[in-house]
Amino acid sequence: MGISAQRGNKLRTKGWRQEALLRLLENNLENAEDPENLVVYGSIGKVARDWPSYHAIVRSLKNIDEDETLIIQSGKPIGILKTHKDAPLVIMATSNLVGHWANSETFYQLYDKNLTMWGGLTAGDWQYIGSQGVIQGTYEIFQSIARKYFNGSLSGKFILTAGLGGMSGSQPLAGVMAGAAILTVEVDEKKADKRIATGFLQKKTHLLDEALRWIKKAQLENTPLSVGLIANAASVYSQLFERGIIPDIVSDQTAAHDLLYGYVPENIELLELEQLRKNDPNQVIQRAGKSLAKEVNALLNFQSQGAVVFDNGNNIRTQAKAFGVEKAFDIPIFTEAFLRPLFERAIGPFRWVALSGDTHDIEIIDHYLLDVFSENEIVNNWIKLAAKYVPVQGLPARIAWLGHGERTKLALAVNQFVADGVLSGPVAFTRDHLDAGAMTHPNIMTENLKDGSDAISDWPLINAMVASSSKSDLVAIHAGGGGYAGYMQSAGLTIVADGTDAAA
Ligand code: NAD
After folding, report:
1. CB within 8 Å of 414: residues ≥ 6 apart
2. Confidence class of residue 257 from pLDDT cuts 50, 70 and 90?
3. Which CATH code for domain 16-129+347-497?
4. Predicted confidence (pLDDT) per residue in 464-503, tens digit
5. Is residue 188 within 6 Å of ligand 1 at its C-beta?
6. If you take atom 41 of ligand 1, which residue's CA is the nearest one?
């Protein structure tokens, strides 16, 4: 039996703050791509270093007092300090390597010795809420493209993308919400089945021509449709271009950042690949790099024929350039191209989780937002769509992009709802690492900043220290693991609205 998050109001800990973090940890495994190996998403993004670490974290959360802080180093609990009750209950640092050594070779060596792990952005700090986590970001990208290139609507437009994993699995639903016909190429059929079962994908096929027929029909009828094609993206993208088929929008969200465990090379069975990763990792990296370069060449070809092409935050251009695709950076990054105007106004992804497990709690908060933020077009549009389309996965949750001030307003209102018994239980808020000031990644988040400060990494660290000094319940400093090693630094936080004055 897999691990799932406890629901209801019974505590196994010395307070709701501890119970909240324990439930979030469990919820990550409940929604994980590979729970047996503690892998939540993003190829090898894990909740804990290993099972002994996981169980020790659970034991610690059950035992710590309000004035203690559990310290976690790359997924391994290393101590509990007496602090004070306004200090975080958990602080952690994950995947950090000293600059000169921060590369994927060193990371994999340390990973093989079980000395480190990668936490992704939301796995290591237990903030993952299923494929919903990134869906509004992808939806807002599509909306921005619609406004910029297609007179405001993607109805009848063809989106080609790849990856139906933990986060990438949100793409088909984001495409449908934006009104498009979206084809997502995925090499692992089990992943497509999971997205169909969880309501993120409508149908699948192994046949390219069948997929294209379905897409064409949907385009002609202006009907939103999502199709999963079980195949390798490198092969399909090249074939489509050779056949003269140019989609309107093309991207990719396979785990391209990780050539060893993430991106699957062409012409290899998944079981054989698993073996080869153990026996000859360098061969895997070389073959994955070659296939990925072929895919990025196809992306550039599509772009040259007028398709709107973008990198959706998986380091695919960086990898392709290392494998000889000189023009890889002609493809824009989604942040700079589409979302920076939101980040510039401190609007970013903000999540909340109903710890009671009661979906009604999320509905009540949805109604509050529609009522109180009725003038805010982004929130108004998104919450209506999310309520209609986004399935419940694990503990009921919602993501919405809110601005500075708006987040506080919502959180205070929710804390009061908890105090007044309007909600069935406390609510945990988490702020994404991918937020203004919370991430340095010169090929994703901070690419082409106007003052050229792309690589300066002080901001996420300042961010984490500020969060630690202002009553966050969990604070995490993450660096890139796998192929992201040396490319990024980020910080995330969790705050539990348990209805107390202290939380307010
Ligand atoms: P994942 O490992 O859960 O899923 C990736 C999927 O890609 C897997 O299902 C895998 O089978 C498939 N795949 C790999 N190679 C393929 C190929 N050649 N052809 C077709 N399918 C292939 O990872 P995820 O959680 O979905 O994340 C994907 C990427 O997106 C990661 O690099 C992650 O860091 C990045 N990401 C970006 C954002 C953002 O805000 N833009 C957010 C989250 C994750």
Report:
1. 352, 365, 368, 423, 427, 429, 497
2. very high
3. 3.40.1770.10
4. 999 999 999 999 999 999 999 999 999 999 999 999 999 9
5. yes
6. 313
